[in-house]
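Hi R.,

Here's the chain you asked about this morning:
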Amino acid sequence: AWWTARRESERQAAAAGPVGLCLVTGALAPIARTHPALRGAPFPGTGAKLAAFDKDAFTSQSLDQGANAPVSEPAARKYTAALNALLERDQATERRRSAIDLDKESVVVFWTREKSDAPAFVLDIFSPPPRDDDAARVAQSVWTGRASRTFDPTPFYGVTLGVNSARVVVRDWFETTAAKV
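And here is the predicted structure, written out as tokens:
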């Protein structure tokens, strides 16, 4: 029974594709041949991919497509889903969930590792709410002199994404704390 179970798991792993060391998780796992696309502006209508190797010209050292930059299937799905969720627009305010458009081709996406008010604070400052009283409240909050939960040591991350044809370009990456933001 043990050998049968082991052989079955090996067959399933082989059917999932080549196994490699995932650059995101560090685990041995089936490598994604292609990655899902990011959707919505500024990315093209069909979406754009953060990692894409779709031509024979991108074959290197006998590695093609996803094997050039090995990311596991689950990690590729999860990072794309997370970025798409942060890029979503709130239907009521038409603001992005946790991103700010810089221009028609660039967007800054930001998040924290733990639950924090910092992303909402940054969003309120750089993309004020549509109601005038909310925007005024946010602007005046810096003059109240009260400590805020926003200024905590929570790790804060951000990435500036642009578009180049059907590919996503990482223009900038930053790591800091919510307090420094």
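One quick note: The two ends are 57 Å apart (CA to CA).

Cheers,
M.
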